[in-house]
Structures are given as structure tokens and as C-alpha cells.
Q: What sequence folds into this?
């Protein structure tokens, strides 16, 4: 099994929007198309409800340096079996209910310990960032796993734009709170809005990405459209979806599942076969679509790249 080495990715020009891209100007297009343009000729499209439609061959490259060689799960697997409590607690609920989310237009507010702050449109956020595909293992805390080809960019390349100050020790991410669009938020299942966080060095690690697509398409609503966090060495609930706010903080931000059940969901939540969930073992996992179980890999198999981030830490205490 091949593990991706570390490295650096140089950003290049990309202009995403709900429009068709010409070489000289942006021509207004329908929001129902939900298009994200990649280079001058290729478009990633979605219906207004977030359901992907077949695009022309997109002009992006797979980053083999960061991709595993395991075969990805099918798009059907990835888009119909989800945890997204804002749309319901059953795994099928997000696929059934997420059509109410309107991922265009969208904006993200940046606040906290940064020199550049404000509210930015999705187009502002994505402009100038290099789109690439990365095939990552995905591990849920409930001991199931997938392999997903994400489309996105390193989070570090975005955070650097905001010029974090010396006091920026953590990064907090917040999901949209709008019970009209997210019916699960009408119920006190969790403390809304959904909040997650990373230490700044975790956020700046080259494996950490913000995804706005998968399988050559924009993200379906149920997978976190239009922008979600992907941290492949952590359990899946760390991947904040439908992000509307990024805040750089000096202290560790309280996170949704850690507040709800601190004995079950730690702030770090690194994949660790030696730290069981109180209600089940984490030593093995089942890949969606398979019956056999696999041994869980420390840091989900990315230990060579990220273990140094936690040198000297007791990973059973800081689970």
C-alpha cells in the first residue's frame, strides 16, 4: 500500500463561478447551472439542488504525490451514505433532504487573529487557487471507511492570504446555520451551528485541503457543498461542511462533538486503533461496499507525513 509523501504545491490561476468562462470576460449564467470553471474550457456543474450532472472533461490534474493508489468507492456510495446531522441523523437522510440547501450564492467570513479579515464571496475565496484531485482514505469514527477522489486546494494556500498573526494558534470553522435550508437544525440534536477546529500547524499541513468538488464535479449538497474541510488523518466528523466562517484564534476553540460528548470525541480525533470509542473498537474498519474488515492504520495510514505534529504528546490523553 503506497502512502503519499509530503511536498509543496504551487498555486495557479483558477476562476470559479456560476458562469461560463470566456478568455476575455465572465458572461452571466444561470445560478441553476451552479458552474465552477476550471481553466478556460472546462466546467464542473451541478443542478440547483446540488445533484451532480456530467460535465465536459475537466481540466484538472490528479496530484499523485498525495493520492493513495487504492480504488475509490463509487459516487453512489459517497453521495448516499453520509453523516450530516443538519439534514437528519440517518445515513440516508442527507441524500434525501439536502435538496433544500442553496449553495449559490455563498460567502465566507474570516475573523480573528489575521491581518486580512472580512466577508468574501465563494468566487473571492477560490480565485487564484490551484484545483487538483486528491484520492484520500476517509475514516469515520463509527468504524467505516471510504476512498474518495476530492477536488480542492491546500487550506494553507488560502490561510496565507489572510496573513495569520503570531497569536493565531488555532483555526475554527463554522457550518451554515439556517433551519429553513437545513431542517435538522430545527431540533436540538447538537448545539448549532456546527463548529470544528484544528491547531494552526494541522491546518497548514499540505495534506489538509478545502474541497469544493469530488469525482470531477462540484460537491453534492449532502457532501458539504459548496466548501468543506478534509483532513485525511482524522475521523470524518472533523471535516466541517458548508463552511460560512473561518476564525483564527489564540485558544483551542470548543467544537460541536467535543461539547456534546467530551468522553467520546476529543479535539484532536486522530485515527488511532489503540484508542477505542467507549461503545466500539477502533482496531478494525469496514470499507463501504465490502463485507470484510481491514485493520485500522494509525493516522489513517498518513503517519509518515503527520506523526511529527504530535511528537511528545500522549495520544491516548489527547485523543
A:
Amino acid at each position: 500500500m503506497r502512502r503519499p509523501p509530503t511536498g509543496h504545491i504551487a498555486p495557479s490561476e483558477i476562476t470559479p463561478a456560476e458562469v461560463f468562462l470566456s478568455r476575455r470576460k465572465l458572461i452571466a449564467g444561470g445560478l441553476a447551472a451552479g458552474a465552477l470553471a476550471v481553466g478556460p474550457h472546462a466546467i464542473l456543474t451541478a443542478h440547483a439542488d446540488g445533484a451532480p450532472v456530467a460535465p465536459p472533461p475537466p481540466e484538472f490534474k490528479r496530484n499523485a504525490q498525495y493520492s493513495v493508489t487504492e480504488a475509490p468507492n463509487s459516487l453512489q456510495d459517497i453521495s448516499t451514505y453520509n453523516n450530516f446531522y443538519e439534514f437528519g441523523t440517518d445515513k440516508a437522510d442527507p441524500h434525501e433532504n439536502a435538496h433544500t440547501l442553496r449553495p449559490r450564492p455563498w460567502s465566507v467570513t474570516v475573523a480573528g487573529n489575521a491581518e486580512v479579515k472580512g466577508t468574501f464571496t465563494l468566487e473571492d475565496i477560490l480565485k487564484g487557487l490551484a484545483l487538483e484531485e486528491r484520492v484520500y482514505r476517509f475514516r469515520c469514527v463509527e468504524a467505516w471507511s471510504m476512498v474518495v477522489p476530492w477536488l480542492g486546494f491546500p487550506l494553507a494556500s488560502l490561510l496565507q492570504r489572510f496573513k495569520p498573526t503570531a497569536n493565531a494558534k488555532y483555526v475554527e470553522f463554522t457550518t451554515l446555520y439556517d433551519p429553513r435550508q437545513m431542517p435538522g437544525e430545527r431540533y436540538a440534536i447538537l448545539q448549532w451551528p456546527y463548529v470544528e477546529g484544528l491547531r494552526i500547524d494541522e491546518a497548514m499541513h499540505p495534506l489538509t485541503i478545502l474541497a469544493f468538488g469530488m469525482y470531477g464535479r462540484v460537491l453534492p449538497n449532502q457532501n458539504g457543498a459548496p466548501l468543506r474541510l478534509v483532513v485525511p488523518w482524522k475521523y470524518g466528523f472533523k471535516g466541517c461542511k458548508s463552511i460560512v466562517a473561518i476564525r483564527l484564534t489564540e485558544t483551542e476553540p470548543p467544537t460541536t462533538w467535543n461539547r456534546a460528548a467530551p468522553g467520546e470525541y476529543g479535539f484532536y480525533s486522530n485515527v488511532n486503533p489503540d484508542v477505542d470509542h467507549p461503545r466500539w473498537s477502533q482496531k478494525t474498519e469496514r470499507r463501504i461496499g465490502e463485507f470484510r474488515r481491514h485493520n485500522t492504520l494509525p493516522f489513517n495510514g498518513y503517519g509518515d507525513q503527520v506523526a511529527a505534529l504530535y511528537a511528545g504528546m500522549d495520544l491516548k490523553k489527547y485523543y
In short: The CA atoms of residues 137 and 147 lie 5 Å apart.
